[in-house]
Write a structure and sequence with these properties.
Elements lengths: L2 E5 L2 E3 L5 E8 L7 E7 L6 E7 L4 E3 L7 E5 L5 E6 L8 E8 L16 E5 L2
Parallel strand pairs: 2-10
Antiparallel strand pairs: 1-3, 3-8, 4-5, 4-9, 5-6, 7-8, 9-10
């Protein structure tokens, strides 16, 4: 079955940038979309962005365009670029995949262990 592993998190000052990576291994034949969610302590896991095999992208509310999702040609690695990081972005960032592009958490069954993003001065 498919497995996901996130990487690229770390400690960054406000205003800095990070590029997170999500790598899928195993069978990805049934994976139409890969999505990023994040979860801060005491908060619900919330949708951030998603991308389909055809390159269609979708974002949660991001009026300033600080987030950008992309993929490599193999479709096994998806990136989440975050610019102008704010303390409110502090969370564990997770990726998953499924047969739909959705912001409904229950649509996705398999998650990576997550990567911690901490934005602090």
């Amino acid at each position: 079955q498919v497995q996901f592993v996130e990487s690229g998190g770390g400690l960054v000052q406000p205003g800095g940038s990070l590029r997170l990576s999500c790598t899928a291994s195993g069978s990805i034949n049934d994976i139409y979309a890969i999505v990023w969610y994040r979860q801060a302590p005491g908060e619900q896991r919330e949708y951030v962005a998603g991308i389909t095999t055809s390159g269609l992208t979708d974002y949660a509310g991001d009026p300033q365009g600080r987030f950008r999702i992309s993929r490599d040609n193999s479709q096994r690695t998806v990136y989440l670029q975050i610019n102008s990081l704010e303390p409110e972005d502090t969370a564990v960032y997770y990726c998953s995949g499924g047969d739909v592009l959705s912001n409904v958490r229950e649509e996705y069954k398999f998650w990576g262990p997550g990567t911690q993003v901490t934005v602090s001065s």
